[in-house]
Amino acid sequence: MALFLDVDGTLVELAPTPDEARAAPQVPALLERLRQRLGGAVALVSGRSIATLDRMLHPAVLPAVGVHGLEWRTAHGQTHRRANAAGALAAARDQLHVFVTAHDGLLLEDKGLTVALHYRARPDLGTEARSVAERVALDSGGRLELLEGKCMLELKPPGTDKGGGIRQLLRDPPFAGRRPVFVGDDVTDEAGFGAVNALGGISVVVDLDRASAATYRLADVTAVLRWLAGVEQRPT
Ligand SMILES: [Mg+2]
């Protein structure tokens, strides 16, 4: 198999703010062992930047899809980035900044290639935040699209998603020709589930209730880590 893993809510427990999310101490070593076990075919697939993933999972350094497919790092360690929309992003950042500073508990995250508004601490503002973000997307004239996740609204250049990122890595060794398995928890992971399903792979959603295209379910981060430990110890 080729194993593709979302990070937040899948390998790492969600936290009140993105900066507070911490990997459990055993996770980096588990990922490195899995990578050896699967001939190198283990990759992270996240909305975070690859630089942030490296910090979170230090000292593990894995192939990765970052910022919803806007960047990816191959098994050889080469990082590629799609052309960004700097001008539109600057305008979006300014518009969202006005909204965020007017309300307590909101957080604006600048990922460089995208900008994300987090309202985990203020779910009561979800509806209002969504209409602000929709307006920002509209004002960009098609240069940005709105991507919605768990208590998160992200403005990103259109045309990439986690599914596209997975397909990109599957073009080259050691991923090419293997059966893709993708584990993720969020709405933004559905594109990844669709991609691996279409390729005859296995999709796993980390949620027992949410409607999903995934074919299997795991309850939570603990269940994912237990399952991964089993994969690592499986006889060849
Ligand atoms: Mg996630």
Describe this entry's structure for a reader.
With 236 residues, this protein is α/β, with parallel strands linked by helices. It has seven helices and twelve strands. The chain has two domains: 155 residues, 3-Layer(aba) Sandwich (Rossmann fold); 71 residues, Alpha-Beta Plaits (2-Layer Sandwich), CATH 3.30.70.1020. It has an eight-stranded mixed sheet with strand order 5-4-3-2-1-10-11-12, with helices on both faces. Strands 6-7-9-8 form a four-stranded antiparallel sheet, with helices on one face. The relative contact order is 0.17. The model has no long low-confidence stretch (mean pLDDT 95).
Question: How does the SSE layout of this entry go?
Answer:
Layout: E1 2-5, H1 27-37, E2 42-45, H2 50-56, E3 64-66, E4 71-73, E5 79-81, H3 86-101, E6 107-110, E7 115-118, H4 126-139, E8 145-149, E9 152-156, H5 162-169, E10 180-184, H6 190-198, E11 202-206, E12 216-218, H7 221-233
Parallel strand pairs: 1-2, 1-10, 2-3, 10-11, 11-12
Antiparallel strand pairs: 3-4, 4-5, 6-7, 7-9, 8-9
Helix pairs in contact: 1-7, 3-4, 5-6
Bound molecules: magnesium ion.
In short:
The chain is of the alpha/beta class and 236 residues long. It has helices at residues 27-37, 50-56, 86-101, 126-139, 162-169, 190-198, 221-233, and strands at 2-5, 42-45, 64-66, 71-73, 79-81, 107-110, 115-118, 145-149, 152-156, 180-184, 202-206, 216-218. The structure holds magnesium ion.
